[in-house]
TrEMBL record:
The modification N6-(pyridoxal phosphate)lysine is found at residue 206. Pfam families: Cys_Met_Meta_PP. PANTHER family: CYSTATHIONINE GAMMA-SYNTHASE (AFU_ORTHOLOGUE AFUA_7G01590), TRANS-SULFURATION ENZYME FAMILY MEMBER. This is Cystathionine gamma-synthase. GO terms for cellular component: cytoplasm. Belongs to the trans-sulfuration enzymes family. It comes from the Bacteria. InterPro entries: Cys/Met-Metab_PyrdxlP-dep_enz (IPR000277), PyrdxlP-dep_Trfase (IPR015424), PyrdxlP-dep_Trfase_major (IPR015421), PyrdxlP-dep_Trfase_small (IPR015422). It comes from Sulfitobacter sediminilitoris. Its cofactor is pyridoxal 5'-phosphate. GO terms for molecular function: carbon-sulfur lyase activity; pyridoxal phosphate binding. Keywords: Pyridoxal phosphate. The keyword Transmembrane does not apply. GO terms for biological process: transsulfuration.
């Protein structure tokens, strides 16, 4: 949805009212689900509704969710995709063969693995760099003149923080677009476009939907008339990576409580981070809300209302001790993913053994349960 009306309302109000979406036909305060894949024309062969011709190009339920996300992100335009990875792919498919890209190292493993393969097949020079180190990012930009600079902040599962405004300055200095995977923050805690990013990407499967029951992704653009935005929109339409109406409707429903959920998840995670920091069985806690975290100051500057529900910690005693603790957990589900109302735990080293993840690292996605119950579960699992 292009150019949503500018709103001075707070994100809690925008989200609760789904950016004003109702069902005009019935008076329903909730929008209807429109499942039609094709739309009729009149006797003169003009579409009855010029906005709707065929579902792959126009989807009213997606437009509602896109309008809401645009308002939350402060974006000119948002496009939904059937997964976060489809959104990642949509960005990289705009890069010409033979050019180069700079991508943050040690980010979401699925992104890294797909980009490596894609760049190899397309003869694109991929430069992976520790983007939370400004000198390293600056050098990579100046040396390689990339088309795209891709960062993820906070990063998953290392919780590294990259200064978005600084990264935007460096990217723009060499004519690159800055794309930020802001999945762990959600549009409630961080609006990267306001710090100079060109595109914000989300796995909407995570906090944005928040109930572990919709797979979706999004790209929110600072400028709707930028050639890259046109390319992405045309490719989505023609190549068909569109989100179905039911998923889009569920996403809108989930987003109504997004600010509430992010606030509670952040509060719980902050409290658990402090608890784990003091725990004798714990070696290290990675959470940007901790004052000693390397990215705390930057995170405090570019995030508002909390530091998110994603938290990693390292158990003393390596893989064996970590897996023993995980096996004892009763409230934290042993499952991948993040951002849902229910808390999850993951032993990332089992999933990606060769990427430098500490063997004792456990990644928590902290939900909205009572924090004392969560502490109790971690305590008994770690052996007090
Ligand atoms: C999950 C995730 C993705 C991929 O999204 P899907 O919806 O699973 O395709 C991308 N980036 C981050 C940070 C993620 O956590």
């Amino acid at each position: 949805m292009a150019n949503p009306p500018k709103s001075n309302l707070s994100s809690a109000t925008i989200a609760a009212q789904a950016a004003g979406a109702t069902d005009a036909e019935t008076g329903g305060v909730v929008p209807a689900v429109h499942m039609a894949t094709t739309f009729a024309r009149d006797e003169n062969y003009a579409p009855l509704n010029a906005q709707n011709v065929y579902l792959r190009s126009h989807n009213e339920n997606a437009r509602v969710a896109e309008r809401l996300l645009s308002q939350l992100e402060g974006a000119a335009e948002t496009l939904l995709f059937p997964s976060g990875m489809a959104a990642v792919a949509a960005v990289f498919r705009t890069v010409s063969n033979g050019s180069s890209v700079v991508v943050q190292s040690q980010i979401y493993w699925g992104t890294t693995a797909w980009i490596r393969d894609f760049c190899t097949r397309r003869d694109i020079a991929l430069h992976e760099v520790e983007a939370s180190d400004p000198a390293a990012l600056d050098a990579a930009c100046k040396t390689h003149s990339p088309a795209i600079v891709w960062i993820e902040t906070p990063s998953n599962p290392w919780l590294r923080i990259t200064d978005i405004a600084q990264a935007a300055h460096m990217a723009h200095g060499v004519g690159a677009k800055l794309v930020v995977d802001s999945t762990a923050a959600s549009p409630v805690l961080s609006q990267p476009l306001s710090h100079g990013a060109d595109i914000v990407m989300h796995s909407a499967t995570k906090g944005i939907n928040g109930h572990s029951d919709v797979l979706a992704g999004s790209l929110s653009m600072a400028a709707a008339d930028d050639p890259i935005s046109h390319m992405i929109l045309a490719d989505r339409d023609m190549a068909g990576a569109v989100l179905g109406p039911m998923e889009a409707w569920l996403l809108t429903r989930g987003m109504r409580t997004l600010p509430l959920r992010m606030r509670e998840m952040s509060r719980n995670a902050q409290s658990l981070a402090g608890y784990l920091l003091d725990h004798p069985a714990v070696e290290d806690v990675l959470y940007p809300g901790l004052p000693d975290h390397a990215g705390h100051e930057i995170a405090a500057r570019q995030m508002t209302g909390g530091f998110g529900g994603l938290l990693s910690f390292v158990v003393k005693g390596g893989a064996e001790a970590a897996l023993r603790a995980v096996g004892r957990m009763q409230l934290f589900h042993r499952a991948t993913s993040l951002g849902g109302v229910e808390s999850l735990v993951e032993h990332r080293h089992t999933i990606e053994p060769h990427t430098g993840i500490p063997e004792g690292l456990l990644r928590l996605s902290v939900g909205i349960e009572d924090v004392e119950d969560l502490k109790g579960d971690l305590g008994q699992a770690l052996g007090q």
